[in-house]
Write a structure and sequence with these properties.
- By secondary structure, this protein is an alpha+beta fold.
- Helices cover 29% and strands 37% of the residues.
Length: 405
């Protein structure tokens, strides 16, 4: 039996044919692999720095708490915090209380305290002479090594150690001379105890002056009003704000990575440019500190000195906040990718490199990392494009489409 085309159902109903073809096309399009939108980044060479970042604060290197040398009534302090003072300037006066004549034993003790203070002053002067000689020797050694390092005879590390020694000896020299001023002040206090006592007739001597041991500024007023004071009671603090250091407490696990002489950058201190510094002391004893999350942490204090010119940081004062970056490693020309482009593969690291609009898994060898960026030692080349933040949908060979920025 012969059936013509005019008698076919599809021929008689063209709409059914169109719908069937449309359904087949939609099924093919739905099951056809679609390109995955991804964020891409280029492999490049740029400076890379690995550092330990912690919050720190400045502090005056040598600060002095001036206390009352005798029992008595202190007059009202006419100075304010921040006022400049000169060495031996009278800060306030104390009217001594009436006291009995010193008995032989008490007078002998007072004389012995004067003798001890005089000996301490002589010892401080000798230590200052030794510190001056050591600082001079360190400067001579630095000049000698500078000529050798320019000729390539010694390593740069030896020259850096000599430079650190110059910084350390200069700080020790400065502290030694401050110590002389302190011992002179202690000697004056000991003489005051022996001198300002009531005689046999009970008469009171003149008001005892309290002098500044150094040239500096008032850092703190413990008491301002007139009133009775006891011997040794703190009255005010003085210091030289032009001689600052920075204390930073870091985790003990990070402290073992930091060495004396290591470079430090101080940022977010209020100026436009970061300040440079050098690690001077890593305190050998740690302490426990409660973090913001309530976790006990073992911390260690790191003391650093400024190496930037003094005029750049003279606006800083005692107790100012800074952000310290202890530079563990730094290079200017490093092949690198964002750390977010790396993912674990087998026992190492890998990235997805874009080749002909397809994702290709590439095993890489990672060097230094700073949390945001990773150094690539092998596996990719400069200029290649990798996928940043690869999702679980991306596999080796899958078709991708870079997301437009």
């Amino acid at each position: 039996m012969h059936i013509s085309l005019k008698q076919l159902p599809l021929r008689q109903h063209p709409a059914i044919t169109i719908i069937a073809v449309l359904i087949i096309v939609l099924l093919i399009w739905g099951y056809w692999p679609q390109a995955i939108l991804v964020e891409t980044v280029a492999v490049k060479r740029a400076p890379l720095m690995v550092a330990i970042e912690e919050e720190g604060r400045t502090r005056v290197i040598d600060r002095y708490i001036i206390s009352a040398p005798v029992d008595g009534v202190a007059c009202r302090v006419q100075l304010n915090v921040g006022d400049p003072v000169e060495r031996n300037q009278i800060l306030l006066g104390i009217t001594p209380l009436e006291s009995q004549v010193l008995d032989p034993r008490s007078r002998a003790q007072a004389k012995a305290q004067v003798a001890v203070a005089e000996s301490a002053l002589r010892a401080a002067e000798e230590q200052a002479n030794a510190a001056t000689a050591a600082a001079h020797l360190a400067e001579i050694e630095l000049k000698r090594l500078q000529q050798l390092v320019e000729k390539g005879v010694i390593s740069r590390d030896a020259f850096d150690k000599a430079s650190t020694e110059v910084q350390t000896s200069a700080a020790e020299k400065r502290s030694a001379y401050f110590n002389i001023e302190v011992t002179r002040h202690e000697l004056e206090s000991a003489r005051t105890v022996l001198e300002y006592t009531a005689g046999s007739n009970g008469e009171i001597t003149e008001r005892v002056p309290v002098r500044s041991p150094i040239t500096g500024k008032i850092l703190k007023l413990v008491r301002e009003c007139e009133g009775p004071v006891r011997t040794g009671e703190p009255l005010l603090e003085v210091g030289d704000p032009s001689a600052l250091e920075v204390e930073v407490d870091v985790l003990s696990a990070d402290a073992v990575k930091i060495k004396p002489g290591m470079k430090v950058l101080f940022d977010r201190w209020g100026g436009e440019q970061p300040l440079q510094g050098i690690v001077r002391v890593i305190e050998p004893a740690g302490f426990t500190k409660i973090s913001a999350l309530g976790v006990e942490e073992q911390r260690v204090l790191i003391i650093s000195d400024f190496t930037s010119p003094a005029e750049q940081w003279q606006r800083l004062g005692d107790g100012y906040r800074v952000e310290a970056q202890f530079i563990l490693w730094h290079e200017d020309n490093v092949l690198q990718v964002p750390a977010s482009s790396l993912f674990r593969y087998r026992e190492g690291w890998a990235v997805f490199v874009i080749e002909d609009k397809n994702a290709k898994r590439r095993i890489v060898k990672v060097g230094q990392r700073n949390g945001l960026t990773a150094q690539i030692l092998d596996g990719v080349k400069e200029g290649e494009t990798v996928i940043n933040h690869p999702s679980n949908d991306i596999e080796d060979g899958v078709r991708i489409e870079p997301r437009s920025n």
